[in-house]
Amino acid sequence: MAAFTHVTVGTNDLAKARQFYDAVLAPLGLKRLKDFGDGGSCWGASTEEFMVLKPANGQPATVANGGTISFEAPSRAAVAAFHKAALAAGGKDEGAVGPRGFWPNAYAGYARDLDGNKLAAYCRNPE
After folding, report:
1. SS3 call for 77
2. pLDDT tens-digit readout, 83-125
3. Which of 34, 66, 83, 100 is buried most deeply by CB count within 10 Å?
């Protein structure tokens, strides 16, 4: 059983967020599966797992201090492609691609999206 049904971040510019996440999540095997008009969109492999939404209360979207959304990557090459796509799409570097000591074989890259949300891609497979 999975621990989560989905993860959501807010955005202040949905059109730009859609372009960003279409590019950044593709190397991880995730695609946009559903749009909610001008309210948001969902990405996943086969079911909606990650959402980007305009805040329901109408207030500006803000980021979580200390929060990170980490995506599973199928390979180290996918981690590098995720990180490269994030920077090319206007994201900011939050941690270069390379080994991490959290788990055996952990390899990751970190970036911030256009709204400042901290993202990571992790591969835990041996090289």
Report:
1. helix
2. 999 999 999 999 999 999 888 999 999 999 999 999 999 999 9
3. 83
Find where tokens 């691609």 sit: 97
**45-96, pLDDT tens digit by residue?**
999 999 999 999 999 999 988 899 999 999 999 999 999 999 999 999 999 9
Beta-bridge mates of residue 118 = 112
Among residues 41, 60, 112, 58, which one has the least CA distance to residue 31?
A: 41
* 1: pLDDT strictly greater than 70: no
Taking CA atoms, 42 is separated from 71, 121, 123, in Å, by: 14, 18, 22
Does residue 42 lie within any of the structural domains? yes
Q: Residue 117 region, left (φ>0) first, then alpha (ψ -120 to 50), else beta?
A: beta
Q: Domain total for the chain? A: 1
61, part of any domain: no
Question: What's 51's domain CATH number?
Answer: 3.10.180.10
